[in-house]
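Supplementary Methods. Inverse-folding protocol.

Structures were first reduced to a discrete structure-token string of length 339. This string, shown here, constituted the complete conditioning input.
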């Protein structure tokens, strides 16, 4: 039976708010770097500091990281370019071990994810707010941005060839069908980054379109690469899940629930039921372990399908629960203004 969700201690609430604050500060620091990179002293060192910061946050609790990441994808206030870069870097960080990438490749991949669109930061923010299709001039800049991003990184004294080559090749015109293990390191990272870039874009809303559900986003990536048996798409399913923490699902009794934590089975996470079958909010969200009993998950939902009836306060309260079972000390705060 589901049980009512209650927060009984202020300490738990403060712990989650601190964790959410750390993610917001990381996004703000990243936004500062991406918006005016040539004005940042020692850009390479600052970016690597953000990589270390992300590593600490994900290591603290990967479910909480995913929960906050999916909220970030839907509700970022720092601008689309920064939120997309942070979502992509988080996914790359989680994917690295699943793909058995050596440590130096994982680090280069995360750095590339942070900076793959640095050559079109302002345009990316503009396009997210633009209802009309890109103009011819905008399409030309989109086409050029991988190489322009690489060139800008060189100007910023980035000298890691894996990082630079992954950025330059993350929008390939034709994809190799060879297994990842048979590719050179740079091509392997570029293919991984390309899939993550598409997934992160599909789960994030723009003015011109609603976001897809996480499940539909994975299916698009895997389906488009069916002949190649896209390893990155399947690795996303294994590491992030078909229904990751922070996403919405419809249960087979018609209720809408928020996924809180993954389980060992892809479609049997811990959820909180927030809307009944008629779309009306429950007075108190009810926790339900789909691995133990019905109702089960019937479908993943895009955030836009029900978001207007689920308040930010409800999502924040549920986030407290996500963080309450991992009360380990939080990573140290960093001064976002220093970036």
């Amino acid at each position: 039976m589901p049980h009512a969700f209650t927060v009984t201690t202020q300490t738990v609430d403060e712990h989650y708010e601190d964790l959410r604050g750390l993610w917001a500060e990381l996004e703000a620091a990243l936004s500062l770097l991406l918006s005016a990179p040539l004005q940042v002293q020692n850009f390479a060192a600052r970016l690597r500091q953000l990589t270390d910061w992300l590593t600490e946050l994900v290591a603290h609790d990967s479910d909480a990281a995913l929960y906050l990441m999916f909220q970030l994808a839907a509700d970022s206030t720092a601008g689309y370019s920064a939120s997309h870069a942070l979502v992509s870097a988080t996914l790359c960080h989680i994917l690295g071990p699943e793909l058995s990438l050596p440590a130096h490749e994982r680090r280069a991949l995360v750095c590339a994810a942070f900076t793959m669109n640095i050559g079109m930061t302002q345009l990316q923010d503009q396009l997210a707010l633009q209802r009309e299709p890109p103009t011819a001039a905008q399409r030309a800049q989109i086409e050029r941005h991988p190489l322009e991003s690489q060139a800008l990184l060189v100007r910023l004294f980035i000298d890691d060839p894996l990082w630079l080559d992954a950025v330059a090749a993350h929008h390939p015109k034709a994809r190799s069908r060879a297994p990842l293990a048979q590719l050179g390191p740079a091509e392997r990272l570029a293919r991984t980054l390309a899939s993550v870039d598409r997934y992160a874009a599909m789960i994030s809303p723009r003015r011109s379109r609603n976001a897809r559900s996480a499940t539909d986003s994975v299916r698009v990536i895997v389906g488009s690469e069916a002949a190649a048996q896209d390893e990155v798409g399947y690795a996303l399913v294994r590491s992030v899940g078909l229904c990751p923490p922070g996403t919405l699902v419809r249960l087979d009794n018609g209720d809408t629930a928020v996924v809180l934590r993954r389980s060992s089975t892809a479609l049997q996470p811990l959820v909180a039921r927030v809307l009944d079958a008629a779309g009306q909010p429950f007075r108190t969200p009810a926790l339900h372990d789909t691995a133990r009993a019905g109702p089960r998950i019937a479908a993943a939902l895009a955030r836009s399908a029900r978001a207007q009836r689920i308040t930010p306060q409800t999502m924040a309260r549920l986030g407290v629960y996500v963080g309450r079972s991992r009360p380990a000390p939080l990573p140290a705060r960093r001064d976002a203004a220093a970036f």
